């Protein structure tokens, strides 16, 4: 952790898919009266913008994706930044299968990453944020005063994800399928999903979300 007390507080929460980053970041932000920014949501919005053109992703060039990126914006809500595509709510679209299946491709494009990172940094220049993603504590905010790296075993991440989606405990087959999908996504995103050397690791496999949030809030309060 850097000791710079003058910079606006940025808390970064990174980790692999379904490690609980966004929900944890949302709760931490609410407790600290900061705003949550989900950087993955921005990659999803850019992907949704490009998907609307209707041609097959195998033909997408980096430039053709960047050309659509300017249609994406963020608006500050009470406790988080909300995504807008052409000025409209796009939450359902960005969580759908089409975007989820294509977003890794977009997230691999270096100039798209630079565009997203600039938007995230500009947001943090004007607001105190709790930001979650894959590389927030490394590429985007190397000087953040609090960096968290959240991990959990794939089976546990799969169980939580199914529970969240269906409201029911998963069967063992469903669990195995979901865990395999999560591990495949981890492999696709591996390059940009690395902990910062000065990140605090929290393994959430055996602790509740309330405990995770308490630990992060306590560390952040010590920095204010
Ligand atoms: O966390 P998520 O599933 O909403 O992320 C969507 C995609 O964006 C996923 O492929 C990982 C990628 N991503 C990234 O490369 N860097 C980030 N800071 C956040 C997300």
Along the chain, the helix and strand elements come as EHEHHEEEHHHEHEHHEH
- Count of β-strands: 8
Please give the CATH class of the largest domain.
Alpha Beta
Please outline the major beta sheet. Answer: 5 strands, parallel
> Into which percentage range does the β-strand content fall?
15-25%
The domain count comes to 2
Bound molecules: 2'-deoxycytidine-5'-monophosphate
Spatial arrangement of strands, main beta sheet = 2-6-1-7-8
Over all CA atoms, what is the radius of gyration?
Answer: 17 Å
Shape estimate: globular
Q: Show unreliable segments.
A: none
Mean pLDDT: 94
Query: What count of helical segments does DSSP give?
Result: 10
How far the N terminus sits from the C terminus, by CA atoms, comes to 13 Å
The CATH topology assignment of the largest domain is: Rossmann fold
CATH level-4 homologous superfamily of the largest domain: P-loop containing nucleotide triphosphate hydrolases
Corresponding CATH architecture of the largest domain: 3-Layer(aba) Sandwich
Q: Structural class of the helices, strands and pairings?
A: alpha/beta
Q: Roughly what percent helix?
A: 40-55%
Write the SSE topology.
Blueprint: E1 10-14, H1 21-32, E2 35-38, H2 39-51, H3 62-69, E3 72-76, E4 81-85, E5 88-89, H4 91-95, H5 97-107, H6 110-126, E6 129-133, H7 136-140, E7 146-151, H8 154-166, H9 172-189, E8 200-203, H10 209-221
Parallel strand pairs: 1-6, 1-7, 2-6, 7-8
Antiparallel strand pairs: 3-4, 4-5
Helix pairs in contact: 1-10, 2-3, 2-5, 3-6, 8-9
């Amino acid at each position: 952790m850097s000791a710079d007390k003058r910079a606006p507080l940025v808390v970064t929460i990174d980790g692999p898919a379904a490690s609980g980053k966004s929900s944890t970041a949302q709760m931490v932000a609410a407790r600290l009266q900061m705003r949550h920014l989900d950087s993955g949501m921005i990659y999803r919005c850019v992907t949704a913008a490009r998907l609307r053109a209707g041609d097959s992703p195998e033909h997408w060039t980096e430039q053709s994706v960047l050309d659509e990126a300017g249609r994406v914006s963020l608006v500050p809500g009470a406790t988080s930044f909300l995504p807008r595509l052409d000025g409209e709510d796009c939450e359902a679209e960005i969580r759908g299968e089409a975007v989820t299946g294509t977003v890794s491709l977009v997230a691999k494009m270096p100039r798209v990453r630079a565009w997203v990172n600039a938007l995230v940094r500009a947001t943090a220049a004007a607001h105190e944020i709790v930001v979650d993603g894959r590389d927030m504590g490394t590429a985007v905010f190397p000087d953040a005063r609090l960096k968290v790296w959240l991990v959990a075993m794939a089976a546990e991440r799969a169980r939580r994800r199914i529970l969240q989606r269906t409201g029911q405990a998963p069967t063992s087959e469903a669990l195995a399928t979901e865990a395999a999908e999560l591990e495949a996504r981890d492999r696709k995103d591996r390059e940009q999903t690395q902990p910062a050397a000065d990140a605090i690791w929290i393994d959430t496999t055996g602790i509740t979300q309330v405990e995770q949030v308490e630990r992060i809030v306590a560390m952040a309060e010590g920095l204010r």
